[in-house]
Amino acid sequence: MEPESKKRKGMEYDPDSWQVLPVLSDEMSDDVEFLDAFAAPITDKRQTSRLVKDLSAVHPISDLQHIRRVRPCKDKSSPHPLEVIVCLVSDVPHIKGRPASLGDLLSSDEFNLEGLGEPFPVRIPARAPLTRPQFEQASLHWPTSFHEDKRITLGLKGQLFTSRQKTKIHEYMTLAVEAAKSGREEGMDAVGGVIVDPKSGRIVAVGHDLTRDHPLHHAVMVCIDLVAWAQGGGVYGYEKHPACTYAAMDHQVQTGASGSVENAQPYICTGYELYVTREPCVMCAMALVHSRIGRVFYGVPSPDGALGTKFKIHCQKGLNHHFDVYQGVRRRSCEELVQLT
Amino acid sequence: MRTDDTGNDGMNGNFLHPSDSEIQKWMSNAFNMAKEALECGEVPVGCLLVYNNTVLGKGRNEVNETKNATRHAEMVALDQVLDWCSDRGMDPKVVCKSTVLYVTVEPCITCAAALRLLHVPLVVYGCKNERFGGCGSVLDVASGDLPHTGTSFKCVPGHRAQEAVDMLKTFYKQENPNVTKPKVRKEGIDPAGGSRTTQTEAAPLEDDRKMATSD
Ligand SMILES: [Zn+2]
Ligand SMILES: [Zn+2]
């Protein structure tokens, strides 16, 4: 996806200012973890490859594939241009704190110390960074490799979506907000949702909370059942709730109702997008996994939310379906809804 | 959320934990349901909701016919309890607080959350659900710290677990005879958008699409 074009940036096309931000896994959003290590200057550059080879034999760091063993010296005025990792602190448990000399780390009987200067402590990133902010944080301490996912980098800057895409996202969330208000008028919690087929732009279902009628009918559960109706299934009736609607599928896709499998047949919410005013609870979040939702946009977090707050069901290890989640869409309007409830 | 107002106030004082013989009786009932389902070529999961020695809900998986991936046996049975309450003008919360779920397989994350939201205090189950389980296998929704998601509940796991696993294995073998070769992953059966799995090694694996429609 293209970044928001420079020309458009800063142009207020939306009075309700908001930014779409991805909800990333803990691995991606946590601070970088570091390991304590000792490094030493390479005082004789010609010894570099030998030193690296010999150090790797004595103190291998092969489980830290992302780490470059040698780095250029940060201090440009330094007499030696390169520094090398001698070992991890955990490799030399007998050393308490700062080693007195190289001899404490490497036995001079067995190791040719030629070309190595006096050791000093460093911190090296324990794992390869997954995001640019992690990469930048890690690089302050020691160089590391980084396979950048541009979508994530843009996402974290709030630049993943073009202005046109943001306008669409805004439009769909506006429908969800309106549905929430209709629900509120019926005495329900002010939560609304919209399910869209992004390929055609078709709005498949619009629903809102119905917990006054049924304690499990959160807006998302209602939307999922409305999608089932759109596909010729469905469980509950919505006649009394005019803001809960669905658009029946076109004929072509409606076939294949039985258990017989046609691979072209979309399975429930496969590829669809959900726009919901507040972060789904754990019941609803897992229902979206079962329904194979494509991606989810929500307005504001909720206290027991399961797409970022209490759990991250969308990237939960062990589950067979993962999806992208973005939050912050029409944040202000969605916050106002929370006040209503 | 309307169902949230009490938070985690634990079990209700007048709720009586079922005796061993009650557990055996209701679980044998649930296993019979699972067997019947298996004989009819359906997902072999049996589930009962019992209130004061009366069965208020008896569910079977209805995902296929409703095209709603959340129509697990537990959800179907919970709806029957809610209907029972509304027919009698009874408060579902009061009833659910004294209701026990007996089910042959650990409830998934969605169903576990639904049980919390309705304040069901106890779940007795057969085998683990390694791929979707909400009572500890994937996530612990049952006892997790979720003050806005109803009441936490207790579990009595492992009742006739091997039998429950065997039924699921049999089901997936008949269902999909082409895919019975054990694959690299050792996760067990993945029945579709959500039901169940087992932790036994030889459990046949399904191709996801097939499972998607078979459950
Ligand atoms: Zn919910
Ligand atoms: Zn379930």
From TrEMBL, chain A:
MF terms in GO: tRNA-specific adenosine-34 deaminase activity
Cofactor: Zn(2+)
Listed InterPro entries: CMP_dCMP_dom, Cytidine_deaminase-like
This protein's UniProt keywords: tRNA processing
A Gene Ontology term for the protein's cellular component: cytoplasm
Domain (CMP/dCMP-type deaminase) ranges: 167-326
One matching Pfam family: dCMP_cyt_deam_1
PROSITE patterns linked to this entry: CYT_DCMP_DEAMINASES_2 (PS51747)
CDD domains registered for this protein in UniProt: nucleoside_deaminase (cd01285)
Keyword check for tRNA processing: yes
Gene Ontology BP term (one): tRNA processing
Family: Belongs to the cytidine and deoxycytidylate deaminase family. ADAT3 subfamily.
Protein name, as recorded: CMP/dCMP-type deaminase domain-containing protein
From TrEMBL, chain B:
Species in which this protein is naturally found: Silurus meridionalis (Southern catfish)
Molecular function terms from GO: tRNA-specific adenosine-34 deaminase activity; zinc ion binding
Protein name per its UniProtKB record: tRNA-specific adenosine deaminase 2
Keyword check for Metal-binding: yes
Cofactor: Zn(2+)
Cited function: Probably participates in deamination of adenosine-34 to inosine in many tRNAs.
Region (Disordered): 176-215
The organism's place on the tree of life at top rank: Eukaryota
Positions of the CMP/dCMP-type deaminase domain: 21-146
Record has Hydrolase as a keyword: yes
Catalytic activity: adenosine(34) in tRNA + H2O + H(+) = inosine(34) in tRNA + NH4(+)
